[in-house]
C-alpha cells in the first residue's frame, strides 16, 4: 500500500511527504490546537492506496507513530488495518459537441475535452472513502476509470457561458448523451450535469457519454 494525498481531519492536518516508495511512505501530521496533559485526542485518519493484489486476498497496513517530543510512553504507537482486495468495475465514456442538437452523436461530430472537470461521486461512501474522484480526461474527449464496487454518479461541470448539455436519452443508447439532470448556477457560472446512479460491480463496464451544445457557434 502507498499513502495517498494528505487531507484535513478534525483538528489534524496531515500531509504525505514527497516521493513515497511503493508500499512505504511517511505522513507528517500536526494537531491544530494545544494538547493538554492527559488529553485524549480524536483520531487522525490516514489513507493508503492498494497498488496491486489479487481479488479475494487480504492486505495489511501497519502505521507507526514517531512523535516529535513530549510523549511518556510509546507502547501503543503501532496500529494495523486490513483490507480485502476487490475486483473493480469500470466507468468509461466520451464527450462530444452535438452540432445539430438532436441528442445523438453523428459520425462527423467532434470530440471535446473542454470541460471544467469530470467527477465520479460515490453515493454510499464509508469511513475513509473519498466523497468525489476526479477523472482523467484524455485530449480526444475519452475517459476511463477503475472504481471500487458501489453506486456512483458521473458529474460533468461546465462553464455555462460556453457550453450547455444536449438532450439526454434520445434514440440509440450507444450514441446518445447520458446526462439526465442539470444543476444550474443562477449566477451564470458553473453548471453541473449528472448521470443516473450507476451500480458498479466487480468486473462491470458501464459507458456514460456526454453531449454538449456549443453556445459560441
Automatic annotation (TrEMBL):
GO BP, one annotated term: carbohydrate metabolic process
InterPro entries referenced in this protein's UniProt entry, alphabetically: Ig-like_fold, Sdr_B
Entry keywords, A to Z: Secreted, Signal
Location (main, coarse): secreted
Annotated SD-repeat containing protein B domain residues: 94-184
Keyword Transmembrane: no
Top-level taxon: Bacteria
Pfam families in UniProt: SdrD_B
Compartmental location: Secreted
GO cellular component assignments: extracellular region
Keyword Secreted included in the entry's annotation: yes
Protein's recorded name: SD-repeat containing protein B domain-containing protein
Amino acid at each position: 500500500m502507498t499513502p495517498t494525498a494528505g487531507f484535513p481531519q478534525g483538528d489534524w492536518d496531515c500531509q504525505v511527504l514527497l516521493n513515497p516508495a511503493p508500499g512505504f511512505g511517511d505522513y507528517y501530521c500536526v494537531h491544530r490546537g494545544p494538547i493538554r496533559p492527559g488529553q485524549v485526542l480524536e483520531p487522525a485518519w490516514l489513507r493508503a492506496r492498494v497498488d496491486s493484489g489479487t481479488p479475494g486476498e487480504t492486505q495489511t497496513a501497519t502505521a507507526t507513530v514517531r512523535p516529535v517530543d513530549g510523549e511518556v510512553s510509546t507502547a501503543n504507537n503501532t496500529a494495523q488495518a486490513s483490507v480485502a482486495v476487490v475486483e473493480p468495475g469500470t466507468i468509461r465514456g466520451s464527450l462530444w459537441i452535438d452540432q445539430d442538437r438532436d441528442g445523438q452523436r453523428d459520425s462527423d461530430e467532434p470530440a471535446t475535452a473542454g470541460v471544467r472537470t469530470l467527477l465520479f461521486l460515490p453515493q454510499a461512501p464509508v469511513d475513509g472513502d473519498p466523497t468525489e474522484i476526479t477523472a482523467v480526461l484524455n485530449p480526444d474527449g475519452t475517459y476511463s476509470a477503475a472504481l471500487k464496487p458501489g453506486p456512483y454518479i458521473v458529474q460533468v461541470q461546465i462553464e455555462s457561458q460556453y457550453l450547455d448539455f444536449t438532450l439526454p436519452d434520445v434514440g440509440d443508447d450507444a450514441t446518445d448523451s447520458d446526462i439526465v439532470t442539470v444543476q444550474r448556477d443562477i449566477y451564470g457560472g458553473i453548471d453541473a450535469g449528472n448521470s443516473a446512479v450507476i451500480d458498479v460491480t466487480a468486473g462491470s463496464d458501464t459507458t456514460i457519454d456526454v453531449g454538449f451544445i456549443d453556445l459560441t457557434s
